[in-house]
Amino acid sequence: MDDGGGLMALYPPISDSDYLRAHYTEFACIVRHGIQDSIRVNDVLFTTPMEGIARINEVEIANIFNYIRSTWYPQLPLLSELEVKSQLENCGSATEKAQ
Amino acid sequence: MRNLLFLLAAMTLLLACQTEAEVKSLPILGERDIVDGDTVYHTIPAIRFIDQEGDSVTNATFQDKLMLADFFFTSCPTICPKVKRQMLRILAEYDDEDRLVVLSHSIDYRKDSVPVLKQYADKLGIDANRWHLVQLQKNEVEKYANEYFNVAFEDESAEGGFDHSGRIMLIDTQGRIRAYAEGTEPESVDQLIADIRLLLNET
Question: Which one of B27, B94, B117, B149 has the minimum C-beta count within 10 Å?
Fold first, then answer.
């Protein structure tokens, strides 16, 4: 949603998310591969799988993250294209299942 | 001659005033035919589905009710969440109005079975008496979308595998389409909320 607030128990919020704060170093993997497992965001369990976006490129992923960062998480570091590449080379098992 | 001109001008004015007053009714959208001197309007196709509760949904379900119709699928990563949020907003606006019922057609004929729709509905807090989620068959997707002036088709290159429009259609008690909104645009939905009031008043 435009305000980043999510939608009830279907889509988690992104504007104030303890999950994002804890997992921002996996951001590229989450966008590219999605999330198949349940996740807990601000004490609410979300079970709807998130589809990955296979064709999104490194620059686009960095742009999305930096937009989210500048809008809601100014305390997090900026993400560069190179860092996106390195994140994608080290995606963990949680997101690889989506492959 | 001068009198005649004056008369004409007066009549035109009178007609103009009448049209002004009649604007307070929604148009009937779509092509129309004349059959035996009667105007026949475009109507939605027959309704025969199973909803998220496993209950059958037919034309009788919508008897004497206004229907809001849209097209979506549960794993849709693009416009569907926005449209669903607007649909929730419309229903909240007409919280006490049991003459307004929603029919959401899933175009994902592979994945969106009854249990999947049920899970989706529960997560959105959907009241099954007011909002029916149903699944179209593969050969129904384009046909139904067309009949509701929407676009929906399978497209491997689209996110989630389908391309579709996010229109919310307003249908009267006779199955005729009377108004619509772009479900992704809150301002457009504001207008639809007003249109629903107009149609309720004439129903």
Answer: B27
d(CA A73, CA A14): 10
pLDDT digits (tens, 9 = 90+) for A34-58: 999 999 999 999 998 888 888 999 9
Q: Which residues of B touch A (CB under 8 A)?
A: 74-75, 77, 81-82, 84-85, 119-120, 122-125, 159-160
Question: What's the pLDDT tens digit per position in A10-25?
Answer: 999 999 999 999 999 9
For residue B17, the model assigns a pLDDT of 53
Residues of A in contact with B115 (CB under 8 A): none
Given A7, A51, A53, which is nearest B81 (Cβ)? A7
- Best of A1, A3, A7, A31 to mutate (most B CBs within 10 Å, chain B): A7
Element (H, E) at A41: strand A39-41
Percent of chain A exceeding pLDDT 90 equals: 77
Name every residue whose Cβ is closer than 8 Å to that of residue B159 and which is 6 or more positions away in sequence.
Answer: A51, A53, B76, B77, B78
Give the span between the Cα atoms of B191 and B185, in whole angstroms: 10
Whether ipTM tops 0.85, in short, is no
Q: The tokens 């909002």 sit on which residue? A: B131
Could you read off the pLDDT of B123-149 as tens digits, one per residue? 999 999 999 999 999 999 999 999 999
Taking the C-alpha atoms of residue B176 and residue B43, their distance in angstroms, rounded to an integer, is 5
Asked whether the beta carbons of residue B81 and residue A11 sit closer than 8 angstroms, the reply is yes
- Residue A51 to residue B82, Cβ atoms within 8 A: no
Could you say which architecture CATH assigns to the domain B38-202? 3-Layer(aba) Sandwich (3.40)
Judged by CB atoms closer than 8 Å, whether chains meet at B159 and A51 is answered as yes
pTM score of the predicted model: 0.82
